[in-house]
Every structure is written in C-alpha cells, then in structure tokens.
Specification:
It is a single chain. By secondary structure, the chain is α+β, with helices and mostly antiparallel strands. About 35% of the residues lie in helices and about 25% in strands. The strands form 7 sheets. The chain has a 7-stranded mixed beta sheet. The chain has a 7-stranded mixed beta sheet with strand order 25-28-23-29-26-30-31. The radius of gyration is 27 Å and the shape is globular. It starts with 11 loop residues before the first helix and ends in a 6-residue tail after the last helix.
Length: about 775
C-alpha cells in the first residue's frame, strides 16, 4: 500500500510546472500506474522523463547514428563507450555537459561536471587517464562573461588537479549567443583495469544493493529537470539544483571502486549522476530486466529530516550504486570503509519489474521500471523541409560584396579602416577565439600520471601514452591514444548539416595530424529548444551531418549527451538561443607514441608542404576573417568532400609513420595565414612562403577556410626520399587531391610572397606577442 501521509496532497498545476511536466504527461503517468501518482512519484517521473535523462525529443534522431565498428566493444546505452585499442587494452570514453549549473554557479557547476564524467568512466572499471573540455562563453567585453569564464576554469582546474587526472586539451570559443548561457562540455578517457567490462544491468534476484561513497544531502535536488529547461532571470533561485563536489572523496572513490571491481564481486554498477538515486536504481533494474527495492532509512545522509522526494532526487556528488554478491558483502563494505567512504546495503534486487521505495516502514513510491527508464515518452516533431528564409538569404552572400583590394590593402567593413595583410594577420591572431588560451590551460595539471605526450597547445590533438599494467620492460615501445574536441559553431549556425559534417571532419583531422588513426566519437549536442521549428531543424540537420560524416570516415558513435533548452531569457522576456553547437569528441590510436608529432616547425630549412582537396570548397564565406575583420557572420560554409577528406588524412598518417613528416597542423579558423603563423609562434621560428596563383583576391588565398587542408613540414635531410615516396604512391594521379611544396622554415620572420610580390613580413616575436597576450591582458 502506497504511503499517503503528506504525499498525496498537492496543487497539480503547480507541481507539473515545478517538475517540467505537461498535463498529458500526468495522464500517461496515471495510465501506467493505474492510479494517481503521489508527490514523490511525480518528482521521479519529472526527472526521468526530462530530456536530460530520457532524450524524449532527440531519441528519434540519435537512432540514425552509426554505432558499430571493428573496434567498438560497447556502444550507446551504458555509462560510457568502450573501444579496443590493441595490446589487450580497452579505452572507455564519453563527453557530458554541465551548462545550466555552470551558468548559475560557475565554479561548482564546472567542478561537478568533471566529477560526473569521471564517474561515468570508472563505473565501467576503467581508471581515468585524461580530461578534455569544450567551452563557450559570451564576448569578453561583458564583465558577467568574464566572471563566468574565471569561475568555470577555476572549477575545472580545481577538481581535475585535486583528483589527479590530467586536463590535456580542449577548445574555447566566444560569441554573444552564449552570454548568460555558457557551454561547459567535459570529455574523459579511461583505461580498463578489470578483466571484464563492468555494466549496469542488475542480476540475480535477492542480491544486495550497495550504496557507496559520499553522503546524500539536499544539494542538486531536481538537477536533471533544471538542465532540461531554459534559463530565465529567475534561474538564480535554482541554486540548490547545483551540486557541490569534493574531489578528494572522488579520488578515494576511484581507488575503492577499482579495487572492488577487480575482485569480481560487483555484479553491476551505476553512477548516481543526473536524477541521483532515482535514475541509478531505475536504470540498473531496467537494464537487467528485473526490479529493485530500496529503503531510504538506510541511505547515509548529511542532513536530518530529509523527505523521500529529496532522497530520491538529490544529485549529491561522489556516490555509486552497486549490485553485489551476497556472500561477499562484508568484504566489499570493508574495502570502502578502508578508504573513508560510506558503504551501506540499502535494498535488494527483486523479481517484479518495479522500483519500490520505502521510508519509515511505508512504501512511498512503486513504479514499473519500464515507465521510468526504457519505455519513456518520445516527442515526435515535424522537420521543416527547407532551410529558413534568413539562412537562404545569407547563403546568397558573395565575395564580390567585399571592398576591392588596392595596393595589397583592404578596407575593414567593421572598423572602416584600411589594413595591410600583415595587420590583418595580427588582428585575427589577437581575437579571443583564435588567440592563445595559455593563461587558461596553464592552470590545469596536464602532466599528472606522466603519460601526456604533448602539453596543451602544442599539437592538434592530445596524445596519451598507454602503459601496460605491471610493465617491467622500460625500453618497450608504448602505444597511445589521441583525442580531440571540436565544433565550429559559426558554421553550424549558418548551415547545421555542413557545420556538423565539418565538426566530425576536423576532429578526425586533428587526430590524424598527430599520426593517430581516428576510431570513434562521442558527441555533446548543445542546442536550443526543440519545440521551435528552427531549433528542431538545426538539431535534426546536425544529426544527419554527424551520421553521414561518421559513416564515411568510419568513426562510429559510442554515446554522448544531449543538452537542449540552451537559451536565456532576459528581463524583457526576450529569448536568445545559443548557436547550435554539436561538439565532437574524437579518439584515435597510434601504435608507437614516439612517432606522434606536434604542430611547431622543427628545423631551419625544413620544407613546408600543403595537402588539400579540390572537391572540398575553400572560401571566405562563413569564415573567421569575415566575422572578426569585417564584422559579418554570413555566407554558406564550405562543403567537404568526405572521401577526399579521408584520403588526405590517410596520406598524412602514412607519411608521419614513415618518418617523413616532422610537424603538421590543420587549416581551420583564420585560414592558411593563421595556421602558418601558429606554427611559427609555437616553434619561435619563421617561415618563407611562396604561392603562385592567378586568384584575384589574395584575402581568399590567405584567410579562406575549408578545403580539407593540412600544412606539414618535411625533414630537410629527407627531401630526395620524400619525392621518391610521392612517386611511389602515385599521389599525383589522384586528380582531386593536391600536394605541393609552399615554402621552408626560416629564422625569425614570417614572410608570404604571392606572384613575386611581398604580401606579409612580420617578425615572429610580434606574432607571438599578439597571440599570447590578447586574452591574458584582460585578466
């Protein structure tokens, strides 16, 4: 009999508003329960039927993703994806968002975002080995955005540094659309330490349900529902929905869990993340096609007089739920107590497919597991057939709309001043979205665990050395994994399909640029409300783009996160949606980390080469140059030929593994000129570039984006062998691909000559000063 005391009487309309449920949801709940739900049960449905937990608006789109591949061991549906990386080693990885909490409490929001994604990793039996982050903020001319940036960076560095997991890479971008609604996406990687992958499905009726970790409090109550609604001026009242983390307890929890998993006595494990005890119990039961009974009186709490609602919806951090072997329960409890953690049996696995919750000797909730987990509602939306009129108008933009170039100088439509090409390069390098993020990543410990091959900023992708357990041979060749997070949200806002294709292609290209083979992705889909025609069209088009790119590049999707309702409402009730931002987290493998290369030039007189695709468009349209120099966000992003993209990456990887290529860097924001300048800055060496072309607009040649292009340098001592290698592989017979020498590494100056005319001549010292100080000067 359901307990009705202080649980059945509520104002329905008010409760539905609080739980972000509609009246038709309530009617469906009544139908499934065959009775009216009490207040606690409505709270459980509210979090479990939110977008954050059940993907009710995005599930039809996510089903289109390719999820199987030769390396994929575990795809979507578990806490994280798992791939085979060779040498009997398995990599666990995933990306998650903590956007709304970070908007309200930037330090704790970002810190607990790191803690949450780490738990997804070690829940599978893997030791976390690396963290990357993808961050978006409003423009830094607003002090509120500066405060958010400071808080988020501090939260990430605090939690990651204390728990002992290196932060090895990431990306940061700035745009007005993120003002008040920053994006904080965190990706984590782990190396499996158990013989078997630890999964979440409950097994064996009668097995104890063990709660381990930290205590439960009132912090984070309703966090999943909070993450599934738009931010308003009243959102500051939702501070209790933001969790508070303790990285030192998390460190103990990592060690205790891995020790417990290695015994084989843990049957199933689930992180208590979004929706806390409700989600972990419901998903474990549903995944095992069984039920779970829990007694809240046995849950360790840090506060007195907590209601069943608060216990079940709390998202207090550093907590896990296990199903364990009954005969081993005392041994497991002792292991956790040894680490100073709580370990209490709070329930058992039952045969009926229900989640049954009791408190004070009364049942306070009794719900079919399917209703909470695997058979949740799906919202089907009609996708508009044609792109919105405002985009079709932007796609009509042509380069001829820009001022004519006179005497190698051009008028900036943004500043109404004339600039030389050298001045434009310096201006672009100083833009916060392109400029060095050194002042940020120097706050992160990137070297803890001693397996980080390149420091942040040195290479296009992070590279992590994979040391085998109990390794004794110090001279052994170590394999490694590479990881990158990428998304050009300007491109996605102007064409969601092409922009999403480009996000997958660039993340793959970055992994290839260090010499690793791209294997699989995890994604974080950050979008506005799916209930608007344009919002859902952006989401649908982006998912289609990701699917097409992943199929062609053979990088299946192993899981990820959907974060919708990323829009802010000001005091005038005007809604501002973010730029659609489907962040791609790509992982790849490399057999020998000693072969991995970074972006900076290596030796004076090394040759500089360029590879690209004639079929992949190269244009100023939708470029950083157009936005940051001319103040216009318009045009259609360049189309990428994915087969050519795949070939260019494969060609580069083989050249790296054959020890011809000693540095490489993909051409992205700012085009060829900025990519070359970045290589000069990283190496403190110059470059002399000679380009022969009959193009009329040199700004297109220097600053256009797209083209699947990569610049790389060849060891000066291997010039003849390199040319022989190109002939041997018949590279010049592939008509749509071009590979050409464009210059050489020089001493102190960055020079560009086009058709024997000096276009650019800048000292590397001046490039470095602009690049390194443009953001740090503001803090």
């Amino acid at each position: 009999m359901i307990n009705s005391e202080n649980n059945d009487f509520y104002d329905l309309n008010e409760v539905l508003k609080v739980e972000n449920l509609k009246i038709n949801d309530y009617e469906e709940i009544c139908k499934r329960l065959k009775r009216k739900p009490n207040r606690t049960e409505l709270g459980m449905f509210g979090v479990m039927w939110s977008e954050h937990c059940c993907y009710r608006n995005s599930k039809p789109l996510l089903s289109k993703f390719p999820t199987k591949g030769k390396n994929v061991l575990v795809g979507p549906g578990e806490n994280a994806g798992v791939i085979d990386v060779g040498n009997n080693q398995k990599l666990v990885f995933k990306i998650e968002s903590h956007n709304h909490p970070s908007a309200i409490e930037p330090f704790q929001g970002a810190a607990t975002g790191v803690g949450g994604i780490l738990r997804d990793i070690f829940t599978m039996g893997a030791r976390p080995i690396a963290v990357l982050n993808s961050l978006r903020f409003g423009n830094l001319d607003k002090s509120s955005n500066v405060d958010l940036l400071r808080g988020v960076v501090s939260g990430i560095s605090h939690y990651g540094n204390c728990v002992g997991v290196p932060t090895v890479g990431g990306e940061i971008d700035f745009d007005d659309s993120y003002s008040g609604n920053p994006l904080v996406n965190v990706m984590a990687l782990g190396l499996l330490e158990t013989n078997e992958i630890v999964c979440s499905g409950a097994k064996n009726v009668g097995s104890p349900v063990l709660y381990v970790g930290n205590t439960t409090g009132r912090d984070g109550v309703g966090g999943a529902s909070f993450a599934s609604s738009e931010l308003t001026t009243a959102s500051l009242d939702d501070r209790p929905a933001v969790q508070v983390g303790d990285p030192f307890i998390e460190k103990s929890l990592i060690e205790a869990c891995l020790e417990a998993f290695k015994t084989g006595d843990v049957i199933a494990a689930q992180d208590m993340g979004a929706a806390g005890l409700t989600c972990s119990s419901a998903e474990m039961a549903a995944n095992g096609n069984l039920g779970i009974s829990i007694n809240l009186d046995l849950v360790p709490s840090r506060e007195d007089n907590m209601s069943s609602y608060q216990y079940l919806l709390s998202e207090s951090q550093e907590r896990m739920l296990f199903v364990v072997k009954e005969e081993k329960i005392n041994d497991l409890i002792e292991k956790f107590k040894k680490w100073g953690l709580y370990a209490n049996v709070i329930g058992e696995v039952i045969e009926s497919n229900e989640v049954i919750i009791s408190q004070n000797n009364k049942i306070v909730a009794q719900i079919p597991t399917s209703a909470l987990s695997d058979d949740t509602p799906v919202n089907y939306h009609t996708v508009i057939k044609n792109p919105p009129d405002y985009l079709l108008e932007k796609w009509e933009w042509k380069e001829s709309n820009l001022p004519e170039i006179k005497d190698h100088k051009i008028l900036s439509l943004k500043d109404n001043k004339i600039f030389s090409y050298s001045q434009i390069i310096l201006k672009l390098l100083s833009n916060p979205s392109i400029a060095s993020k050194r002042w940020i990543y120097k706050q992160y410990d990137s070297q803890v665990q001693s397996n980080t091959v390149f420091k942040p900023g040195e290479s296009d992708a992070a590279v992590i050395r994979l040391r085998e357990q109990n390794e004794k041979n110090k001279n052994k060749v170590f394999s490694g994994v590479a990881a990158s997070v990428d998304c050009n949200s300007r491109w996605v806002s102007l064409d969601p399909f092409r922009g999403a294709v480009a996000a997958v292609a660039e993340s793959s290209r970055n992994v290839s640029c260090v010499g690793a083979e791209p294997v699989a992705i995890t994604n974080n889909l950050n979008f506005s409300s799916p209930h608007t025609e344009i919002g859902y069209w952006q989401l649908s088009s982006s998912c289609n783009g990701i699917s097409e790119a992943c199929r062609t590049l053979e990088t299946p999707v192993t899981g990820g996160n959907v974060s919708l309702y990323n829009e802010s409402k000001n005091e005038d009730n005007k809604i501002t949606p973010i730029n659609p931002t489907p962040v791609i987290g790509m992982v790849g493998t490399i057999d020998n980390v000693e072969k991995a290369i970074s972006s900076e030039w290596k030796n004076i007189d090394d040759q500089i080469w360029l590879i690209g695709s004639n079929k992949s468009e190269t244009t100023i349209s939708a470029s950083s140059y157009l936005e940051y120099f001319h103040g216009e966000i318009t045009g259609r992003p360049p189309q990428i030929d994915l087969l050519d993209e795949k070939f260019c990456q494969s060609f580069l990887r083989n050249a790296i593994l054959n020890s011809f290529v000693v540095s490489s860097h993909d051409i992205s924001d700012g085009g060829l000129a900025i990519a070359l300048a970045e290589c000069c800055i990283l190496s403190s060496k110059g470059a002399t570039i000679e380009l022969n072309t009959d193009i009329n607009r040199y700004d297109n040649l220097l600053f256009a984006e797209g083209g699947s292009r990569i610049i790389f340098s060849i060891d000066k001592t291997k010039e003849n062998q390199w040319l022989d290698y190109l002939k041997k592989i018949n590279i010049y017979t592939k008509s749509s691909i071009y590979v050409k020498k464009i210059g050489y590494v020089s001493t102190e100056t960055f020079k560009i000559k086009i058709q024997d005319k000096n276009i650019c001549n800048i000292r590397v010292e001046e490039l470095t000063q602009k690049f390194n100080n443009s953001i740090s000067d503001r803090f």
